[in-house]
Design brief:
With 644 residues, the chain is α/β, with parallel strands linked by helices. Helix content is 43%, strand content 19%. It is built from 21 helices and 21 strands. Helix 12 packs antiparallel against helix 16 and helix 15 packs across helix 16.
Length: 644
């Protein structure tokens, strides 16, 4: 036990480091941290000049190869772009930067991606033990059911939730896609089809500017065509936390380097992916014509929203394009579907932004210019407001990132919650929507403190109709209403040396004994021993064969409560020997409501006193607090009362 204490004291600061999940981002961040900005700008300029030269040399070859492709693929690779796909240049850059999966990607871009079947995900990702999605139906079974599915779908008129103008907008968006060559010309609906059609509907989404927009979705779930796809792997997505890790790495090595946020958004991402010719028979879509008062039939030539395969086709294309940008321009880009974002030195940032637009346009894709602002210290990324603040005190440079939910998004969700509270109940559909948004905010902004307040909301998702706002559900809704009203930011330190690190061990035993040990960096060690029956707060625990798991959570809470003033404003490495509580504390929630409330107490105390908890599991044999939990003296430090 003492050996682990000595190890923890030596390595505590290392345990605060954020582990990179992306080796490419880590490598580029390290490169930026070791280069002067003048050399970085010169390297970018040299590379963009080389790409321009190769673009000119290879254009004729690209035009020749494009002309030999299937007609529908040619149309897709020209549609909505300033330039058609620059096949030869893309092939050259994929090889130059050694982009994984480059050969199959180029093949699928020129011959079409699989719309159904065993969908290729990412050659870099190890296969999962169990497929993410299995086949649900065979092609033969679905062709037999096609007439019944067609009859069922054509009986459904436009959604009653949409206005006449909404229905007209969906139809006109389809007409525009046809004019661009991404979809087939309209035809009459096949009454006895060999392959089932898919009904087109729409969802209302909040745009990046806080305005509601209408997005057509093709319901391949109801037509059962998504059941023809199998997915063996889960894709990874870019995270704001990874960008923060990149910033910390750069700032630790170059503390005076000012950083800005660069971001962009790929336009019509899915629609840049053509579909394999032999699979076009499965892409048939029916859309309501409001003037003719009937369905019209068309089919997709490129990946549509609503198809399982579209997600993975674009993932491969988006990942390759992002790798090209990142490597060519030394920008540690994260990518979340069609959004890319990173932090880079302020010097040369505007030119880097222009180079990104140019490279992607030259290759035959599009970054939306209005969503590619001049890089600056403040930006909204994935609906999250990010503000880099540079501070100087007594000659020492420090930087922080203020993270909060975007004001427009907050106002939108606050309005929904207020309407729900006004009537006193929440529907399962509303609960699903709010739980999803709350979970996203927790992942991107609040961390475990937010995650601890979605348990009851998730439960309401599975109610048959509606749930009355009362008890824990009402408490959670109230909490989210308060957060969305204040948009209280989270402050994250970048680069500067951390303050003192505090170490806490906590433990419990089956009869209710609890113990804790605190090892402050520049103060004396303290410890306590007690029993759950002696603590002031009486927790209402559910009946169980054994209460060891809630007792472990109480031990952790009482340790944080007892030493909150010592830990205030500090990073705390917390060692727990119970796997269940360790994982729950990392996530911020537990399925058990009584344990979830205890976790919430821990996180509330931490938030109130600016304590940043870094939980780690430790074997019981190495947990020094195991001794006081059993009433024994650990042999280090001074005993204190838990009731202080």
């Amino acid at each position: 036990m003492n050996s682990h204490v000595e190890w923890a004291k030596t390595h505590a600061r290392e345990l605060l480091s954020d582990a990179f999940e992306d080796a490419q981002i880590e490598g580029i961040s390290q490169k930026i941290s070791t280069m002067c900005t003048r050399d970085l700008a010169a390297a970018r300029l040299k590379e963009i000049k080389h790409i321009r030269r190769m673009s000119r040399l290879l254009r004729a070859e690209s035009d020749r190869r494009l002309s030999k492709l299937e007609p529908h693929i040619q149309r897709v690779l020209r549609a909505g772009r300033k330039y058609p796909l620059h096949i030869a240049l893309l092939e050259y850059l994929l090889e130059r930067y050694q982009v994984p999966g480059r050969y199959r990607l180029l093949q699928d871009l020129t011959e079409g991606f699989d719309f159904i079947g065993d969908i290729l995900v990412d050659e870099n990702i190890e296969p999962a033990d169990k497929a993410i999605r299995e086949f649900l139906v065979s092609e033969e079974q679905l062709t037999r059911r096609a007439p019944k599915i067609s009859e069922k779908l054509t009986r459904i008129g436009p959604s009653k939730e949409l206005s006449e103008q909404d229905v007209e907008d969906i139809f006109q968006q389809t007409v525009e896609e046809i004019s661009l060559g991404r979809m087939q010309q309209f035809e009459e609906v096949d009454i006895q089809p060999d392959y089932p059609p898919t009904r087109r509907f729409a969802v209302k989404q909040l745009s990046s500017k806080g305005k509601v927009k209408l997005r057509p979705i093709d319901d391949y779930l109801s037509s059962e065509i998504n059941g023809l796809s199998r997915v063996g792997k889960r894709i990874s997505v870019g995270k704001i936390s990874t960008m923060l890790s990149s910033m910390k790495l750069i700032k630790q090595r170059r503390p005076k380097q000012k950083l800005v946020i660069i971001k962009s958004d790929f336009k019509a991402a899915y629609r840049a992916c053509p579909i394999k010719k032999k699979h076009l028979k499965w892409t048939k879509v029916i859309v309501w014509d409001p003037k003719a008062k009937k369905y019209r039939q068309t089919r997709h030539f490129c990946m549509p929203f609503g198809a399982v395969s579209a997600v993975y086709a674009w993932h491969r294309v988006g990942q390759a394009l992002t790798t090209i940008l990142s490597t060519a321009l030394s920008i540690p880009f994260n990518r979340y579907v069609d959004d890319i974002f990173a932090a880079i030195p302020i010097e040369g940032a505007k030119e880097a932004r222009n180079f990104c637009l140019e490279i992607i346009e030259t290759l035959g894709f599009t970054l939306e210019e209005e969503k590619t602002p001049i890089p600056g210290p403040s930006s909204v990324v994935l609906g999250v407001q990010l503000d880099i603040e540079e501070r100087e005190m007594r000659g020492n440079q420090s930087s922080v990132m203020q993270v909060s939910i975007d004001e427009a998004k907050a106002a939108h969700w606050l309005e929904k919650i207020q309407a729900i509270k006004a009537r006193g109940y929440i529907t399962s559909k509303e609960a699903e929507s709010i739980a999803g948004r709350a979970n996203f905010i927790s992942q991107m902004v609040l961390g475990p403190a937010g995650a601890s307040r979605v348990r009851a909301i998730y439960q309401a998702v599975y109610q048959s109709d509606r749930s009355t706002l009362e008890g824990e559900l009402l408490e959670e809704i109230d909490w989210w209403q308060g957060y969305l009203t204040t948009r209280r930011p989270v402050t994250i330190k970048l680069g500067e040396a951390s303050g003192p690190v505090t170490i806490i061990y906590s433990d419990a035993e089956g009869t209710g004994g609890i113990g804790g040990v605190i090892i402050p960096e520049h103060q004396n060690i303290q410890w306590f021993r007690s029993n759950v029956s002696n603590i002031p707060k009486k927790d209402r625990l559910h009946p169980r064969k054994t209460q060891i798991i809630p007792y472990e959570s109480i031990a952790a809470r009482e340790s944080i409560r007892r030493w909150k003033t010592i830990a205030a404003g500090k990073d705390v490495v917390m060692f727990i020997d119970n796997q269940s509580i360790y994982h729950s504390l990392r996530k911020g929630r537990s399925k058990a409501s009584d344990i979830n409330l205890i976790l919430r107490d821990i996180l509330d105390i931490a938030a109130k006193h600016d304590v940043r908890i870094f939980p780690y599991w430790v074997p019981s044999s190495l947990n020094i607090s195991d001794l006081p939990s059993r009433g024994d003296d650990p042999g280090i430090g001074r005993e204190v009362s838990i009731l202080w």
